[in-house]
Structures are given as structure tokens and as C-alpha cells.
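Throughout our pipeline, every protein is held as a single compact record rather than as scattered files. The remainder of this section carries one protein's record, kept here as part of the documentation.

===
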Amino acid sequence: MVLSSLFIVAIIVQCTYVLYFFTRILWLPSGQELSPEDRESVSVIICARNEAANLVKNLPAVLAQHYRGKDGKPLFEVVVVNDGSTDDTATILQQLEAQHNHLKVVTIPQDADRTLPGKKYALSVGLSHAAHDQLLLTDADCKPASSNWLALMTAPLGKGKEIVAGYGGYEKTPGLLNAFIRWETVHTFLQYCTYAMTGRPYMAVGRNLACTRKALMLAQQNPAWSALPSGDDDLLVNIAGNGHNTTVVGNPEAFTYSEAKATMQDWVQQKQRHLSTGKYYRHSTQLLLGLYAVSHALVWFCFFALVAAGGGKAVILPMAVRSLLCWLSLFAAGRKLNEQKSGWSIPFFDLAWMVYNFAFLPYITWKNKQHWK
């Protein structure tokens, strides 16, 4: 009786959550470029440590963005912070800087006296050298999906927004791990995107994030900023973002793509670092996200327990309704994000996400990952 009641309550919570939040993905704003007359100058900031190969592969696409003023000249600069690299990063950047007037290279010595942990210090140095008040943040291992990426991601800033969250996807390669990474990325975007659409922004990804200098400086002044070596994206949204000044751009031309981790160990280390920021979310956001995760786990646990106890017929229909709503929302998100080919994996990874939450629970709730790279 108790198990059946828990199952029904969890089903109701899941369905309500999906209907209120996830279905909003159908109205995801695609964004629209501003005319050359309305554009403002932008500083793209990239923090790089031992990223020579990625800079060769991706930086030219950033420098070649179609973002020009009425005179036809680039209306943006790219500030790359070489954070104590020991590979060929300095040489690569020197070569590219000689070819592109709008590339600005800033070097942090390996023995620099750092005032902030990890990437936060490199980002603060990049901000101090940025010439413009509109900023676009990305990583050295990211490539824009199109030459209109910069124009689309920064257009909302010209309309009064202060934070713009974008989608940072992963390139498709063979293997189950890659499939799950891409599924989990879609699921994460579905959550933070639809939360923002309800006026409750709580996170973004530093791989693809636009903001104003004012918003970033406000975040840097908060005590939580110095607590982690990364997490600048989520902390920025939680400290400086609100329902009025934050938006999401869902245009496929505004996406960025990176190579996913190839081994389980590397991916686990990456997720431990990313999830460490969750404890700094607003309490209401933590409650809602926790409610979703707990009800998700209860649905699957109670379903299997009730089926094993012989009550299969009574649980099939409510489970089918819940699963149909969840899976259709994830499929719709996949279509919006050009990830529809992974639709076959939705039921399998829906169950796997419960294991994922239990595995990373310590980092979600209390542990800090103290290394950037």
C-alpha cells in the first residue's frame, strides 16, 4: 500500500513537472540578429591552458565570425588568455595574432600570484583586458556551429538582456558513452532552458554564454565566486541573473560543439567539476531540482518493485503516461538541438539517469572539485 502510494505521488510529480517546465521547449526562442546599425562591439573571451591542438582546430572559426559594422570591419575582438601553458599554445597564438588584428593574446606566467582559483583567475585577467562591455564566453575546445554564432548569441544583449545562455553540444562519435554524454547534455539543457523560460534561471554552460561586463563583475564580487576553480557560468546566473535579464537562444546556428570525453574516467572527472556548483543554487531551485530527481528515482524503483510483487497491471498505465510525457519532451528537445538521431536511446538513458544521480550525489550536495584542469 505504501509502495503504491509513493509510486502514484511520484508519477503525479513527474507529470506535473514535465507539463509545467519541459513542454516549454516547444516555444524555445531562436533569436534574431541585430542590423549592423544596431550592433555594439563585443569581446569574446577564451581561457586556454595547454590547448594548442584545440586552438588550431577551433579559433579560426571564432575569428571568422560575420559580425561587422556599417563600415564592413569586424565589430569584435577575441581575447585569448594563455594560462601558464607548457605546450605549443604560445606559438600557435603568436602565429594567429600576426594574421588577425582583432585577436588579443594575454599570457599568465606559470608562477603568477593567483588571487582566484583555477579558471576564475584566467577569466578575471581576460575581463581586465577586454575592451568592450558586451562579452561572449566560450572555451578553446569549442567550435561555433556557424559564422552567425556571435551575432545571434549577443543580439539579446543589444535588446536589454544581461545574460544569454546557449547550447554547448558534443560531436557525435561511436560508442555508448558518447551517446549518453550527448543525451545528458540535451537533458541538462532542457532543464535550465525551460527554467529560464519560467523566470527561474539557474545555470548556463561556459562553452556558450554571453553577458554584460556589469553582470560578470557583479558575480565576481560575491564570496561564492572564490569557492570553486570553475563554475563561473552557473554562479554568474545565480548571482546576477533573474527572470527579466536572462534569456536563452535556441537557434542551431548559435550552438557550439566540443569533443566529448572518450573515456569514463575523464568524463567522471569532468562531471565532478561541473556538478560542484549545484550547492550554490538558490534554495527554491535546489528544492525543485531535488524534487524532480527524487521523484524520478522513486518512479523507477517503485515500478520495478510493484511489478516484482505481482502488481504489474496496475502500474503499467500510469507508468506509460509518465514515460510518454517525459520521452516526448526529450525527443522534442533533441529535435530542437539537432540531436534527434539519439531518440532511440531516450528510454534506456531515462533509467540510467537514476544511476547517474546516485553516483554523483556527493558532488551535487557537498563536495567541491578543486581543480580546473
Observations:
- The chain has two domains: 2-25+283-365, 29-263.
- The mean pLDDT is 91.
- The chain is about 50% helix and 10% strand.
